[in-house]
Design a protein that fits this description.
single chain; alpha/beta
Length: 156
């Protein structure tokens, strides 16, 4: 998960959409991670992958990374609590969030192949960077991983 996230974020940030945006707007784009769907036949903890993507984007220092939907809800609830219970000079005011320019979203799928006691599972991760203003897909990335499992034959 970590290696795939590293490779895909590195590829995404090396593509022209980033420098084009920075030149046009004079600032880094703001990115949020959207939904990453598990379309595989296995249970995959997608949240771990989302966390890896978030870390790589944040640590790159090439984009401004903002909290995702679930995190924002928790943070907004905290601000609402502060408005009622915290000293006025320490309260954080609502309405100062930064809106995302792009959303990174995608899916994880698997392809199964089996022959002569050997089973191969191909994991495919597809990600896309979507401009939130106009729905233009600024970048597509794909990473494939192959896992081979040899079954032991039992002879009687």
């Amino acid at each position: 998960s970590r290696l795939v996230a590293e490779a895909m974020v590195k590829e995404a940030l090396a593509n022209p959409w980033l420098s084009n945006y920075t030149k046009a707007k004079g600032r880094q784009p703001v990115v949020v991670v959207g939904t990453i769907l598990n379309r595989s036949h296995e249970h995959i903890n997608v949240q771990t992958f989302v966390t890896d993507l978030s870390r790589e984007l944040t640590n790159s220092q090439q984009v401004t990374f903002v909290a995702g939907k679930g995190e924002r809800e928790e943070i907004r609830a905290e601000r609402a609590e502060q408005a009622v219970h915290a000293r006025e000079d320490t309260q954080k005011a609502p309405g100062k969030e930064i809106g995302a320019d792009y959303m990174l979203k995608g899916n994880i799928s698997t392809i199964l192949d089996e022959a002569e006691g050997t089973k191969a599972v191909f994991y495919q991760v597809d990600l896309e960077m979507v401009d939130l203003e106009n729905n233009v897909k600024a970048w597509f990335g794909q990473k494939k991983i192959k896992k081979v499992v040899e079954r032991k034959r039992v002879l009687f």
